[in-house]
Amino acid sequence: MCRPQEETKKLEILASFLIELALVDYEMLQYSPSLLAATAVYTAQSTIHGFSEWNNTCEFHSHYSEHQLLECCRRMVRLHQKAATDKLTGVHRKYSSSKFGYITTKYEAALFLVSDSH
């Protein structure tokens, strides 16, 4: 699926924000780097669009099914949710700047991804 360049940039910045949050969270060490990367893309896509958008192409290139991403995704969404108020707020402040398109002020955590029905 082709995306306009601006939307692709937002996705890239939001995924980078989520990865940086994961890098400073001890519990995220249990996940492999490739799973973290795939989950950051999945979570960013879902956050921007308001629904899960993982498709066969995403699965083919990442080697992860949506189901395999969900546990890590739930943790990542919680990190996003508390990023502004947690002990380590540096990542949130960084991505709240104009250099990163104020991405943290534009998108709230995708809480629908942490519901039990998902």
From TrEMBL:
<dbReference type="InterPro" id="IPR004367">
    <property type="entry name" value="Cyclin_C-dom"/>
</dbReference>
<dbReference type="InterPro" id="IPR013763">
    <property type="entry name" value="Cyclin-like_dom"/>
</dbReference>
<feature type="domain" description="Cyclin C-terminal">
    <location>
        <begin position="10"/>
        <end position="109"/>
    </location>
</feature>
<feature type="domain" description="Cyclin-like">
    <location>
        <begin position="1"/>
        <end position="78"/>
    </location>
</feature>
<dbReference type="InterPro" id="IPR036915">
    <property type="entry name" value="Cyclin-like_sf"/>
</dbReference>
<dbReference type="Pfam" id="PF02984">
    <property type="entry name" value="Cyclin_C"/>
</dbReference>
<protein>
    <submittedName>
        <fullName>Cyclin-B2-2-like isoform X1</fullName>
    </submittedName>
</protein>
